[in-house]
């Protein structure tokens, strides 16, 4: 596949992971989860906004009964992240005894995931696992067991397939990396 460039606002990005590769890997992750949760009816908690495209394709790949809910994390003050997740918004389901799979677009430092797992733990789930489209291992600061990772990537700024730059480019089918 030829590398494509896109310009979003003041930045230029180049294709790093084409759509076909993304979809193939998402199907593989869905198969793995389906196998691991064959008799468990897991509840996926998709973290908005970035994970919505990944969560949609992941669910379509599942071969076992499962449910999905969308959550938003309150950690921002104005336009700046406080670095602290104040609360997990949007969970109306009773999580007691449920097998929870957090669906995230990208895990970088792990701070958000650690706080979310702590918050969910107060609701007595049977288990909590993380499923992420992208993982930047060199940025990880928290100790996390990330059970399902579609792609490990370097510490680059990326967009597309749900990920944005200033709320733009979420609808791009490929994943793009900022061009230096």
Give the mean pLDDT: 91
- N-to-C CA distance: 21 Å
Number of helical runs? 3
Beta strand %: 25-35%
- Assembly type: single chain
Instruction: Strand order, main sheet: write it out.
Output: 7-4-3-8-9-10
Extract low-pLDDT stretches.
76-81
- Helical proportion, percent range: 10-25%
Biggest sheet descriptor: 6 strands, mixed
- What is the alpha-carbon Rg in Å? 16 Å
Overall form: globular
Query: Would you report the number of β strands?
Result: 12
Question: Can you write the helix and strand succession as a string?
Answer: EEHEHEEEEEHEEEE
**How does the helix and strand content classify structurally?**
alpha/beta
Structural description of this entry:
This protein is an alpha/beta fold. 22% of the residues lie in helices and 34% in strands. It has helices spanning 19-36, 52-61, 111-121, and strands at 5-8, 11-17, 43-48, 67-74, 76-77, 80-81, 87-89, 99-107, 127-135, 148-152, 158-159, 175-178. Strand 5 and strand 6 (80-81) form a beta hairpin. It is globular. It starts with a strand and ends with a strand.
How would you concisely characterize the structure shown here?
The chain is of the alpha/beta class. 22% of the residues lie in helices and 34% in strands. Strand 5 and strand 6 form a beta hairpin.
Could you name the key traits of this structure?
six-stranded mixed beta sheet; globular; 22% helix; four-stranded antiparallel beta sheet; 3 helices; 34% strand; 180 residues; alpha/beta
Q: Which SSEs are present, and which pair or pack?
A:
Elements: E1 5-8, E2 11-17, H1 19-36, E3 43-48, H2 52-61, E4 67-74, E5 76-77, E6 80-81, E7 87-89, E8 99-107, H3 111-121, E9 127-135, E10 148-152, E11 158-159, E12 175-178
Parallel strand pairs: 3-4, 3-8, 8-9, 9-10
Antiparallel strand pairs: 1-2, 2-12, 4-7, 5-6, 11-12
């Amino acid at each position: 596949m030829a590398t494509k460039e896109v310009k979003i606002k003041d930045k230029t990005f180049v294709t790093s992971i084409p759509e076909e590769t993304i979809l193939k890997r998402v199907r593989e992750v869905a198969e793995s989860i389906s196998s691991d949760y064959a008799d468990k009816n897991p509840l996926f908690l998709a973290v908005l906004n970035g994970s919505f495209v990944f969560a949609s394709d992941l669910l379509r790949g599942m071969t076992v009964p499962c449910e999905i809910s969308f959550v938003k994390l309150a950690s921002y003050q104005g336009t700046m992240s406080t670095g602290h997740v104040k609360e997990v918004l949007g969970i109306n389901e009773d999580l007691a005894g449920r097998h929870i799979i957090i669906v995230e677009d990208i895990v970088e430092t792990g701070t958000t995931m650690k706080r979310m797992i702590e918050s969910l733990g107060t609701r007595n789930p049977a288990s909590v696992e993380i499923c992420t489209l992208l993982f930047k291992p060199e940025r990880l600061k928290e100790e996390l067991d990330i059970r399902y990772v579609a792609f490990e990537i370097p510490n680059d700024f990326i967009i597309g397939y749900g990920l944005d730059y200033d709320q733009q480019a979420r609808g791009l089918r490929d994943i793009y990396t900022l061009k230096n």
